Amino acid sequence: MKEIVVISGKGGTGKTSITASFAQLAAKESVIADCDVDAADMHLLLKPDFASEEAFYSGQLAHIDMEKCTRCFKCKKACRFNAIHVDDGVFSVDEIDCEGCGYCEKICPVQAITMYDALSGKTYISSTRLKNTLVHAELEIAAENSGKLVTRVKTLARKKAKEEEKEYLLIDGTPGIGCPVTASVTGAHYVVIVTEPSMSGLHDLKRAIELIGHFSIPAGLIINKSDLNEEITGEIKTYAEEQGIELLSMIPYNENFVKALVQAKTIVEYDPVLKETVVDTWNAVKKNIDGI
Fold it and tell me: For the domain bounded by 2-47+128-290, which CATH number is listed?
């Protein structure tokens, strides 16, 4: 089983549209993982059934037992995050402000404070309208540790891919270069980077290439909306060549990407002309990864 991750240095490049199209083309050969847990939207295109659900706990939160509390105020004074509030003599912990450091528990003289595991999100294993498996997740509101949730999604997806004896694990990674992206690309066999010809696109592309360079993972590049700024497109091509990144394809700006999304379809289902380009791109990815 080969693991392919699709990432982008910034949001809005068409990363998920491309990944969903690959999922359409490789439906019988792949398990799909949506690791963009901070803003998951693969389910909008693949229509999963949310058949299996699992709670994900990460980090801790404090709880104050008012039956034991002597109202000494030591915890409130010590909390550097101002997470402990007092209302009419009742002490409570704001779950959003609490960082789970546990200091309040340690200094409480009557052991009125306990730490408990925080619910950070949920993971799902679903069957999609493409008749393949999608492993995806939902991060709780204001929850942190999305990198750990990405790792959990990948662990479940790898297990399903092996159980189903699939040839590919196709991962929709997260934009940027933070912890969730690192978790997305760790252990991958090949990375597909989707960018666009803008100054921010070029800047963030360089950061993404630098990141995957630390892992020594082979990569290919897709320049989406390539005709919007030919000068920057040229700079992107030159930089990618200098870094040893293969140019997989250049896709001109096309409003059908948005029209397809509105109808909850992949671009390969909606536009036969663009389909040819995406098919050629997917074949190039398979050729590269089969040689690894």
Answer: 3.40.50.300
